[in-house]
Amino acid sequence: QAKESGKRTWCIFSDELAERARIRRETEVDLHRALENNELLTYFQPQMCASTGEIVGCETLLRWKHPTRGLIGPGSFIKHAEDTGFITRLGDWTLREALRVARRFPDNMRVAVNISPLQIHSANLLNTIVNALAVNQIAPSRLELEITESVLLSDTEFTLERLRKFKELGVRISLDDFGTGYSSLSYLRRFPFDKLKIDKGFVQDIDHSEECRAIARATLQLAKALNMVCTAEGVETEGQKQFLTENGCDELQGFLISRPQPLDKLTHLIDIRDVPSGSDEHVEEGDR
Ligand code: C2E
Ligand code: MG
Ligand code: MG
Ligand code: MG
C-alpha cells in the first residue's frame, strides 16, 4: 500500500513538473510573439511628493495584454524572461517605450524604469539609454533606474562600475525593495544611490505593527543621513501616509495615490502633453 501511494505521489509530482515545463515553453514562445504583436504595455504609477502633494515622477510597470489569458502582471513573466535571457531585449524595449511615453510628461517629471540583473551585464544597455534619451529629448536626470539588491550579489565590482557609468551620464539610480535583500548596508557604503525605496512589505503593517514603524523610521533616518531621497512603495492607507510624512519620507507611491495605469488614464493627476504621434516614428527611425 505504501508503495502504491508513493507511486501516486510521484505521478502527481511529475504531472506538475510537466505542466510547469509546458507553461514555461509556452510563455517563452508567447513572449517573443507578444513583443512583435504589441501585446506588451507600459503602465505608469505616480510618485507623489509627500510635502506638496505634487506628482514628481512615475514608475514604469510592464503589463501583458495576452490574447487569451487577459491582462497579465510582470510577476508571471519577468522571471521567465530573466531565465531565458529574453529580458535583455524586453528591457531595451521597455526603456525605449518608457522614454517615448515620457515625452508627454510635464517638464520636470521623472520616469523610473526597473532594471534586471542580466540587463546590467548587457553591453548594449548604456547605448540604449543614451539613444533613447537623445531621441526623446529627455534630460538624463529625469531617468531613474530601479535596481534591487540582488543585482549587487554577483560580480559586485563589475556592477558597481556599470552603475557609475550611468551616474556619470547623469541618470539617477534607486535601490528598490530596500530591506528585503542581503547586505543592504554594506552596499549603501560602496555606492552613492540617489534614492532608496522602502519595500511595501514594511509599509503594509505600519498601521498595526510597532516593529514595522520602527524599521520604517530607522530607514528614513538612514536615507536622510546618507543624502538619499526616500520613497515609500505600497502606500494604501491615510494612516501610512501620515506616519511616513511625519517621519520625513520624501515621496509616496501606492494605491492610495493611484494604481498603475496607462498614461492616458492619469489625466486627473498629471498634466499630460499632446505630442503629435506622426513625428515619433520619424525621429525614432534615424536611431534604429
Ligand atoms: P516593484 O518594482 O517593486 O514595483 C512595485 C509593485 O508593487 C508593482 O507590482 C505595483 O503594482 C505594486 N504596488 C504599487 N502600489 C501598491 C500598493 O499600494 N499595494 C500593493 N499591494 N501593491 C502595490 P507589479 O506591477 O505587479 O510589478 C511587480 C514587480 O515586477 C516590480 O516590483 C518589478 O520588480 C517587476 N517589474 C515590473 N515591470 C518591470 C520591468 O519593466 N522590468 C523589470 N526588470 N522588472 C519589472
Ligand atoms: Mg520598482
Ligand atoms: Mg519595489
Ligand atoms: Mg517589488
UniProtKB/TrEMBL annotation:
<protein>
    <submittedName>
        <fullName>EAL domain-containing protein</fullName>
    </submittedName>
</protein>
<feature type="domain" description="EAL">
    <location>
        <begin position="24"/>
        <end position="274"/>
    </location>
</feature>
